[in-house]
Write a structure and sequence with these properties.
- This protein has 117 residues and is mainly α.
- The chain is 50% helix and 5% strand.
- The protein starts with a strand and ends in a 6-residue tail after the last helix.
């Protein structure tokens, strides 16, 4: 029996994405989808005192600045701006940001009581 298991994500778009995955897999596998801490429908990191979040700011930062012939310089500026954003998030939401990692996302998946066994 096919089990479609969507944890922490309940928007229609996500359900249709899961249906597509099930179709591609031939209906023979369980599907697990979730938003790790700080991503998607989970709580984003707060990066200013007025609740401007990393999720709000990321679209402004996410385009890699490859402009020839100074790509190395552009990448340096890009790295500096990302580090500044991370420092702001740590300053305003440090108690939360320290738990945004792959290891904590893995722990969340392992400890979810709704997880199929």
């Amino acid at each position: 029996m096919l089990l479609q298991y969507i944890s922490m994500m309940s928007m229609d778009a996500d359900k249709s994405a899961a249906s597509s995955v099930v179709w591609y897999l031939g209906g023979q596998h369980d599907v697990l989808g979730f938003d790790p801490r700080g991503v998607g429908m989970s709580r984003p990191a707060r990066c200013t005192k007025n609740n401007y979040t990393a999720t709000t700011e990321w679209p402004n930062q996410s385009h890699l600045p490859f402009d020839s012939p100074t790509a190395e310089t552009s990448l340096g500026r890009f790295g500096v701006s990302l580090k500044a954003m991370v420092r702001r998030c740590e300053m305003y939401d440090g108690d939360y940001v320290k738990y945004l990692s792959t290891s904590f996302a893995t722990r969340d998946m392992d400890s979810d009581p709704r997880r199929p066994t």
